Structure formats: C-alpha cells, structure tokens
Amino acid sequence: YTDRYAEVPFDGMMPKMDITLYAGYLKSGQNGEYVFRDGEATLVAYHRVEHELTVLYLPETVDGYPVTGIAAEAFWGEGIETLYLPASLTHVDPMAFAGMPELKCIEVRPGSRHFTAKQGALYTADGKTLVCYPAGRGTVYSMPVGLENIGAYAFADTKLKAVHLSEGLKQIGEHAFDGTGLTQVTLPHSLTRIGAYAFSRCR
Q1: Which one of 11, 45, 157, 165 has the lowest number of neighbouring Cβ atoms within 10 Å?
Q2: Which of 68, 66, 65, 59 is closest to 32 using CA atoms?
Q3: How far is CA 189 from CA 53, 87, 148, 159, 194, in A?
Q4: What is the secondary structure of 48-70 as a DSSP string?
C-alpha cells in the first residue's frame, strides 16, 4: 500500500521518486472486511447480513484490534439510515460514506477524541471541520458557530438545496458540494480557499 492506513493499493508502477510502501492483511469478520496493520483495523467493506437492517453500530474492536479507520466507499449500497461510529475511530476517508443515499444520521459513541456528531452530521472533535453531511438528510444546512472548514466530499451527492455559510469559514474542500441541488450560494469574506470541483454538477 502507498499510505500508512493500508487503504490505497500499490499498482506496481514505480514513480520517479522515492516511495514508502506499507503492508497490511485483509480479513473478513463481523459482517465486513478489514485491513489489519500495526495493531489497528480499518473497515474497507461492510456487508449487511439482514437486509432489513437500517441502524448499524460499527464495532469498537475486531478480533481484539481497535477499529480506527474507514476506507473509501466502505458502505456502498448497503441502505443504512443511522450509523453509530466507535470512539476508537481516528481517521475517515473523505469518500467513506459515498454510495449511501438513505443515510440520514451519523452518531459518534461517547469518548471519541477525534470526531463528534451534531444534528446527525459528522465533525472533527474540535467542531472546526465538517467531515460528512449524510446524503439522506435535510435539504437546508446552516453553518454552526466555530466551523472553519468544509471537508472534501462533505456534501457530495446529497439532497442539499440551500446552504447558509457564515463569516469564519476559511476553506471549502474538493468536491464539497459536488452533485447537490444548489443553485446559488453566498460566500463569506473570511473564505481563503475553494478546492477543485467544489461546486461541480450542482443542479
């Protein structure tokens, strides 16, 4: 792998620069597939056993290893509406919740030092970065006090039609509003960076 969380496979092509490769091993268990490395587990694919299940509690540990990461598209097409994340989680891929059109609410179990949930959306623990606004949530979003960054893909392919951004917002990540229903947005003067394709495919 080319990243320390063993989420990005090495394709065998050596770039014209020094590169550090990492090793991990894949194992299935507890309705999902996990990559284990350095005593930690990263969820790479979740599979529902009961198709009527709409509420999911992601485990704190798998085979004795803390679940610390979620890879891109880990829940693709699984129909989960409410997702409870473990306090052990330390990193989430920007596209971790892609392909979840029914997802309405994300919650974080008590004790997390890295993430928190506010009104069903996922933020970093300090409240400064919005990580994910669930695709199945409401059509209007009002920025909370203290928010400074909207993460990459945070609103991508959601039902969002209106957003209220306040002074204090500094950055909007890549593809942040990609595929939403926004037709207009007023940007605050405090904004210093807009990532590539931040407003792509708005309709």
Answers
A1: 11
A2: 59
A3: 44, 35, 12, 26, 12
A4: -SSTT--EEE--SEETTEEEEEE
Using alpha carbons, select from 153, 133, 132 the residue that is nearest to residue 201: 153
pTM for the structure as a whole: 0.85
User: Residue 39, exposed/middle/buried by CB under 10 A (0-12, 13-18, 19+)?
Assistant: exposed
Query: Which tokens belong to 102?
Result: 């029914």
Give the integer Cα–Cα distance in Å for 35 and 199. 33
Per-residue pLDDT at 49 exceeds 80: no
Dihedrals φ, ψ of 37, to 5°? -160, 135
Residue 120 has pLDDT above 60, yes or no: yes
Q: What is the pLDDT of residue 47?
A: 84
- Give 28's pLDDT tier (boundaries 50, 70, 90): low
